[in-house]
Every structure is written in structure tokens, then in C-alpha cells.
Design brief:
Number of helices: 30
Shape: elongated
Radius of gyration: 32 Å
Mean pLDDT: 92
Low-confidence stretches: 1-35
Oligomer: single chain
Strand content: under 5%
Length: 722
């Protein structure tokens, strides 16, 4: 049988060769009189013949030998005629297999090397999601996508009529994604391979690096082997496929499994999460579903009754008659996700973050159902911080639109910053999973970062740490989108007096994390600076801790609190940074907020200013404008009409139709500065005196002298060279 399949494949190869030779002859080439295939084709044949696609004795190709034909539902990927039929290459409609093909073929050359396969650009996944404008790897993805999706699980639960996911249903049975669903893993939440829990956001397509980002860029299309020698160009310690298990990139430095080991490869993180999830599945099956369960990845249908309840697969248990049959909705969701992560052995490369999210959410859901505190995931980590959090709103905001506007692309797409640095402007771009290594690191001179001599802030002011300092990249985005200049421009355009109400003004939002503008203070006017007042400029911390990545780990963005202890003796944990208060030894400490304490953290002094300003804003809105106002830091446009006048932000008030629309210039200035102080949560470290100054001036302007009677304005520091 094996030789029979080989002869079929060789015959097809010789036919293809004859066609090639014939074309060469027509074009004036010399025909091979011996009829032997050209060397380049024989080379590919030799590669293919040793690959899994040509393994004529594999279960993937002999499973139907007793039946005499390959089942229609399986033929697409388990026989060459079935694959060609599915593509419509035999003249039949594309997208289905019409006729069960005979046994005897493997994945032959003509499965992929035919006109229809060569023209493929789109792939539809089992979820119904379609990915378009693809490369030659489309041919791989037709099969390596699995046969089920998270939607299959959801539909099964719906059809069973379950309203309580912890209720056993005789109508449920295990749903299997099938083997080697690498493409479904790669495309993550775009393909919906796993069961994605409601209310959660998941990693979309995993982007690697240019030229090594598709199936055939990482695998030989004929041997299917990983191009391991090319991996070594970036992964220095990779000399074999086994070494890939030890790879861990700077964008994945969270302790996902909570074991305290950040040196292990990302595969190690996944393996531990799988073990934890399987243990939780077994505990849930016993304690909630009422029947003990075991798993065998090599025996269909994989999950079986643990007849002696010892937690191990014993002889005779992994048999179809003993298939697990006490499914609840949650148990089905969990078992399916566990199987998804097991059936793509390369998942730790294809899309590890997606698998981590599926396992984390599964583990959490199981433990919640069993009453385990904090969902049993207190020590684990689901999402990456900031720049690499593919689940976060900064990168997922535009998914439905499919386009990130040019005004946002610089900081919210992986390629936006390089485009901006080259052209000084951005155009609309497709959403990306997150930022990538090549967002900051120059591809042409990797791993060097892009050089930025000086940065232009929204006010038009230019500043830099030093010329071409790498930290200038950080403040190219972390600078906000508004300034004193833009607020003044809006007020001038409205043409009204300071306390005159108008509907021509709208709130000006500085945007999130304008840390660079805070750091440079009055030099770049990120906050609103009142005319006739003086403000501190750049915050000079101390030598060696005076730029972004001297205080923050540059990939994880975490505060390097262990370095703070040299000067701040009480800093032993990350949260201790919040308690820091520095004072000039030659100057008496200042009680800025007038509460009688001069040793409270500077963060608390700022918080007192914020509370007072918010109260003053509300009082001014009610008494001067005549319309109450409330604030929600998490929902654009942030300021809303206080419809019931209770001073509290109620759920029904937070909607765009209820946005605050009756501004005066003074109200706008104060609201802008309040928002500015909230949207840079690190103001207490980035430039505390500057933020105290702008909050004080806002409070004084909107509340009058009495509002600041007990407050003290932070002194303006004189530059050393003045």
C-alpha cells in the first residue's frame, strides 16, 4: 500500500515534469530525451518524500483503508483528490468535497501545485471568519485550521438549552478542534479557534518579524521542517528545534504561570498553565459534574471516565465505550480549550499569548465555579503590560472599523512610529495586535533603535533628553495630544469671556499617559498654564535616573523600584514608590494641601489638590453655568451632565448624548488640567511641583482666593544656569 501511494505520487510528479519539459521545448529549450525530471524537481521530490505529507503508513492516510474511500468530511486534508475537489480544481463547486475519493493517496505534489491552489488568497475558518489577501501559505491554512471553533462550543450549549453552565446535560458531548490547527492558533481571536469567554479580549494574529511571518517563511514547504538555522540569526542559543522551547522574548517577560521563573522559555509557562488547567478540569468534573475524568491525547474522544477515580489513565479506561458523558456547559468549554492548546504542539511559537489567555480564563472560570478565592489565578498573569498588551483598548479600539485613523496611527499601530519618523506624518493604517520590536528597533540596523534628534510636542515646542537619546522615542508618543496652545486656540475661536457660557467650546482631552509633557513641564506647556504665572520646566531628578528607561524597564515598563532604594530607604516593594516624598534639606518642608502633614507622600498632596479642584469645578458648573457636571475617567468624553444633581457619576449619565456641552473658558481650563493630572498617573514622580502649580492655579481661578486659602503653591525652581 505504501509503495502504491508512492507510485501514484511519482506518476503525478512525472506528469508535471513532462508538462514543464514540454513548455521548455515550446519556448526553445532543449527537451530531455531520457524523460527524467529536471534536477530542481527531483530535489523537491526527495524533500517531500521524507515529510509527514508523504508518510503513506501514517494514521492520517490509512484510517479509511477498511472503508475503501476517504470520508467526505475528512477528504479535504487526508487525500489529494479531496483537496483538489475542495478547491474546485476538478471542476466541481469550491468549498466542499462532492465525492468521497478513493484511498491510496497522501498529500501529493499536485495538491498544492495546481492552478487553483496557486491562486488562493483567502481562507475561511471553521468559525466562519475569513482572512483575505494572503500569501502562498494559504495552501497550508486550508487544512491546518482545525475542524471546530469556540463558536461550535457555544452553539452546542445553546442547542442543549442550558441556562446554567454548571448543570449536566445529556445532549452535550466533547467537541474536538482536531490536529495541528496551527493557522487557527496563528490568527488567534481573528479565527476564534478557542472558546473565548464573554467580556474578555483576546490576542489577534501573532506577528513575528518581516520575512519570517508565514507558514512557508518559517517551515520548509516540502520537508515541513522548521528553518532552524535562520532562527539562530536572532535567537542566539537556538541550534535545534528543541532549543525553541527555551526562547523568551522581551515582550513576554510576565510570570504567566506564577511559578516565579522568568528564565524559562514561553513554552514552560504554557506547559505549567496546561497542567494547572487539567488539574482544575479534573477537580471540577469530580466535585461539580459528579463524575471523575481523565484525558488521553492519543485516543479519541480524548476525555474518559476515571473509573477508579485515581486521576490517572489506567488500562482499559481510554476506550470509546468509556467516553466521558457527564458534561456541563463550563466543563465542555474548558475541555475544548485544553484540547486546543494540546493539539497544536507548536502553539508556543504560533501564538503563545492567545493560548495563555485561553488557559488563564478557563482556569479562572473553573475555580470561580468551584468557589476558589480570586478565581484561583491570583499568582498568574493574563495580559502583558502596555506596549505588548494585544487585548487592551489602545490596540483593539479600531477592530470593528478595520482602520486606525492617521491621527492615532503613530502610537497605536506597530508601524506607526517608524512611518512618522520618516515622513513627519501618518496615514490611516490597519489595526495591529500591539507594538512590535520593529516599532522602536530599526530593521535596517537591528537591534539599534531609531534615532530621534528632537521631539515636537503638541504646543509646537521642541525638546529632547539629549540629541538622539533613545528615550526620545518614548516621548514621541508619551506627550499627549493637546496643550496650553490648543486650549487657547479653542477659546479664542469661541470669542467669549472667561466666565461666559457658550456651546462653541468642547472639552479638550490631553489623552493618556502624557508623561513626556509632564517631565518637561513649562518648557512644552502640556498642562494649561495661566497667563502671568511661572512654572517649572524639565524635572531634574538625579544623575543616572533622569530619563524614561533609567526608571522604567524599557520593555515591560515596570518601575525599577529596586534601584530607588539607594536614595529612598523605605522602598522595598513596587507600591512603596507611591509613598516617596523628597524635600530639600536646606528648606523647611511644605504642607502644600494645608492638612497639617509635611511627611505624607507627595502623591497624597497632589490627590488633595485634585479633590479640591473637582469640588470647585462642580460648584462652578452649578452656580455659574447653571448645569451640574460629573466626571468619569474611563469613558470618553469624560465630562457629563449631572442630570439628578447628586454630584455623583451615575451609570445612566455616562453616555455621549449626555456629554457636558455648556462650557466657559475658565471651566474648560480647569477641567483640562484636572484631566491632565488624572491621565498621567505618574505625575507625582514625573514632575510633582509642576503639576501642583497648574492645579493650584486652576483651583484659584475657578474657586477664587478662598479656595486656596489653606493651600501653598509649589515654588518655581530657578535653572542652574540662570
Amino acid at each position: 500500500m505504501k509503495m502504491y501511494r508512492y507510485f501514484i505520487a511519482l506518476g503525478l510528479l512525472l506528469i508535471a515534469t513532462a508538462l514543464v519539459v514540454g513548455v521548455q521545448a515550446q519556448d526553445g529549450g532543449q527537451e530531455n530525451p531520457q524523460g527524467e525530471p529536471p534536477t530542481f524537481l527531483r530535489e523537491y521530490y526527495d524533500q517531500w518524500v521524507a515529510s509527514p505529507h508523504a508518510d503513506a503508513e501514517a494514521e492520517a492516510f490509512i484510517h479509511w483503508d477498511e472503508d475503501g474511500v476517504v470520508e467526505v468530511d475528512c477528504a479535504k486534508c487526508h487525500s489529494t483528490p479531496g483537496y483538489v475537489d475542495y478547491l474546485g480544481g476538478d471542476g466541481s463547486p469550491a468549498g466542499t468535497v462532492e465525492v468521497a475519493p478513493p484511498i491510496g493517496t497522501v498529500v501529493n505534489c499536485d495538491a498544492c501545485h495546481n492552478p487553483v491552489a496557486a491562486s488562493l488568497t483567502n481562507v475561511t475558518f471553521p468559525s466562519g471568519a475569513e482572512v483575505v489577501n494572503l500569501s502562498d501559505s494559504t495552501r497550508c491554512m486550508i487544512c491546518h485550521q482545525g475542524r471546530a471553533s469556540g463558536l461550535s462550543v457555544e452553539n452546542a450549549i445553546t442547542e442543549a438549552g442550558l441556562t446554567d453552565l454548571n448543570t449536566v446535560s445529556a445532549d452535550l458531548r466533547f467537541i474536538n478542534i482536531h490536529y495541528y490547527a496551527a493557522a487557527a492558533t496563528l490568527y488567534g481571536s481573528e479565527a476564534h479557534a478557542g472558546y473565548e469567554f464573554p467580556g474578555k479580549s483576546y490576542q489577534p494574529r501573532n506577528n513575528h518579524v518581516e520575512e519570517y511571518d508565514t507558514c512557508i517563511e518559517c517551515h520548509s514547504p516540502h520537508t515541513l521542517e522548521v528553518k532552524i538555522t535562520e532562527c539562530a540569526a536572532c535567537h542566539e542559543d537556538v541550534e535545534s528545534v528543541e532549543d525553541l522551547a527555551d526562547v523568551r522574548m522581551q515582550g513576554s517577560m510576565s510570570d504567566y504561570d506564577g511559578d516565579g521563573d522568568l528564565e524559562e522559555g514561553i513554552k514552560g509557562e504554557l506547559d505549567t498553565l496546561k497542567e494547572m488547567t487539567y488539574a482544575a478540569i479534573q477537580a471540577y468534573a469530580t466535585n461539580v459534574a459528579g463524575t471523575a475524568l481523565v484525558y488521553d491525547e492519543h485516543a479519541y474522544p480524548y476525555f474518559f471516565i476515571d473509573t477508579n477515580a485515581n486521576g490517572a489513565v489506567d488500562e482499559g479506561e481510554a476506550a470509546f465505550p468509556n467516553a466521558y458523558n457527564t458534561w456541563t456547559g463550563l466543563l465542555l468549554q474548558s475541555a475544548y480549550n485544553y484540547q486546543v492548546t494540546m493539539k497544536d504542539p507548536g502553539g508556543y511559537v504560533h501564538n503563545p499569548k492567545y493560548h495563555i489567555e485561553l488557559l488563564y480564563d478557563t482556569l479562572e472560570a473553573l475555580n470561580v465555579a468551584m468557589g476558589t478565592g480570586e478565581g484561583g489565578v491570583a499568582a498568574q498573569v493574563r495580559n502583558d503590560p502596555g506596549h505588548f498588551d494585544a487585548t487592551g483598548e489602545p490596540f483593539r479600539h479600531w477592530d470593528e472599523d478595520g482602520e486606525v485613523p492617521g491621527t492615532c496611527a503613530r502610537c497605536h499601530t506597530a508601524g506607526g512610529l517608524p512611518v512618522y519618523l520618516k515622513n513627519g506624518v501618518n496615514i490611516a493604517a490597519e489595526p495591529t495586535a500591539s507594538l512590535e520590536c520593529t516599532t522602536c528597533h530599526n530593521v535596517a540596523d537591528f537591534p539599534a533603535v531609531y534615532e530621534v534628534a528632537e521631539v515636537t510636542f503638541p504646543s509646537g515646542a521642541r525638546a529632547s533628553f539629549e540629541e538622539n537619546d533613545p528615550n526620545n522615542l518614548c516621548i514621541s508618543c508619551h506627550q499627549g495630544r493637546e496643550s496650553t496652545v490648543s486650549v487657547n486656540r479653542a477659546i479664542t475661536a469661541a470669542g467669549v469671556g472667561d466666565d461666559e457660557v457658550t456651546d462653541k467650546l468642547t472639552f479638550r482631552n490631553v489623552h493618556y499617559f502624557a508623561a513626556g509633557a509632564t517631565w518637561f513641564g513649562g518648557e512644552v506647556q502640556g498642562a494649561y498654564q495661566y497667563e502671568g504665572k511661572e512654572y517649572n520646566g524639565r524635572n531634574e531628578h538625579v544623575r543616572s535616573f533622569n530619563t524614561c528607561n533609567e526608571c522604567h524597564e524599557q520593555h515591560q515598563l515596570t518601575i525599577q523600584y529596586d534601584l530607588c532604594i539607594d536614595c529612598h530607604e523605605d522602598v522595598e516593594e513596587p507600591e512603596d514608590v507611591l509613598s516617596i516624598r523628597m524635600e530639600d534639606e536646606d528648606v523647611d518642608p511644605v504642607d502644600y494641601d494645608g492638612d497639617g502633614s509635611t511627611d505624607e507622600p507627595i502623591r497624597d498632596e497632589i490627590a488633595a489638590y485634585q479633590d479640591a479642584l473637582y469640588a470647585a469645578i462642580q460648584a462652578y458648573a452649578t452656580n455659574t453655568v447653571g448645569t451640574g457636571i460629573v466626571y468619569d475617567a474611563h469613558t470618553h468624553p469624560y465630562w457629563y451632565i449631572d442630570t439628578n444633581g447628586d454630584g455623583v457619576t451615575d451609570a445612566d449619565e455616562v453616555n455621549s448624548d449626555n456629554r457636558y456641552a455648556t462650557w466657559t473658558p475658565n471651566l474648560l481650563r480647569a477641567a483640562y488640567n484636572y484631566q491632565y493630572s488624572v491621565k498621567d498617573p505618574g505625575v507625582f514622580a514625573h514632575n510633582p511641583d509642576y503639576i501642583l502649580q497648574v492645579l493650584y492655579d486652576s483651583l484659584e481661578t475657578i474657586g477664587g482666593p478662598d479656595a486656596v486659602a489653606t493651600f501653598t503653591r509649589a515654588p518655581v525652581k530657578v535653572a542652574e544656569d540662570d
